[in-house]
Fold this sequence. Notes:
Blueprint: E1 7-10, E2 13-16, E3 21-23, E4 31-33, E5 46-51, H1 53-63, E6 68-73, E7 79-82, E8 85-91, E9 99-105, E10 108-112, E11 135-139, H2 152-165, E12 171-174, H3 180-190, E13 197-199, H4 201-212, E14 221-222, E15 237-240, E16 257-261, H5 268-273, E17 278-280, H6 288-298, E18 302-306, H7 311-319, E19 323-326
Parallel strand pairs: 3-4, 4-5, 5-6, 10-11, 11-18, 12-15, 12-16, 13-14, 13-15, 16-17, 18-19
Antiparallel strand pairs: 1-2, 2-3, 7-8, 8-9, 9-10
Helix pairs in contact: 1-4
Amino acid sequence: MHPRHWTQLDRNGLFVRPGKFYIDPDRAAPWAVITHGHADHARRGHHTVVATPETLAIMQCRYGKNFCKNAIPLGIHESMTIGDTTITFYPAGHVLGSVQVQVEYHGQRLGVSGDYKRGGGDPSCADFEPVPCEVFLTEATFGYPLFVFPDPWSELEKLAASTRLFPERPHLVAAYSLGKAQRLIATLRKLGFEGKIYAHSTIIALNTVYEHFGIELGTVFPLEEFHYDHVSEIADVIVAPQGGNLKLNLPEGLVPVLSGASGWNSVRKHALSSRLEVPMVISDHCDWLGLQQSIRETEAKEVWVTHGPSEALSLWGKSEGLQVLDLKEVWRG
């Protein structure tokens, strides 16, 4: 009863046959188990959705009340029987409400990571916990040894310091509307930042979901209320999605300090091409060392890789006595 014998990969995604459900399907499905609220994992149109209360609230915020026909909340560390399988949610540390899914069938356990990150003390979501399993399906967004991330709190200290050095220039920070934006805001508050924070409307909407679940973000002003204050001792911080058409109505000749938080900023060429004055290496995914640590802690002997390169992990896995396969290769041949 190895997991490869009771799962399959089709055009909708990963299907668990004895439970008749998909995990994070790419298209509308009768039953969908959703790991977290990002759009590439949580889509509208499913009949039945099983997810954490937080993820269900995020999906409703983004897609409206009718994002699915039947929403079933399942909390972290809670289990549920679906068909002949039992699923259990474990925190993934990625964004609010994100989970890894342990699927158990006839004594064999498959751990599906979704997206996850390790360490850093993110004040906006629960910390990652290892999923005990025989087979672990891991994401590998940063699955190369060159990706070893610094302490995210130290990275955000750079932004806070810059707001004091250049108080006359607003600081425009590019960040995903879900997860990254709230993490940056919450961490800035913990660091003692006392300036004003403005945010794009998509971020403001999701902030209400975070605050409903007890994540303190403080006062965040809508971007529409921004007005330039040249006498402040601390620059204003504006958080917005990458590529948004923002009109800040600044005095002629004054440009904002551009900043951004991404794991890709560890590649110097990427940071330079983005023209960032304050690039921050902060990711909501694991770096190379985090991937290794996570795989070891599951005690799985077989690892399936998705959402990133498998080659480096496969070579490393051999030295650890593991079988590491690209997800698409599992059922091929």
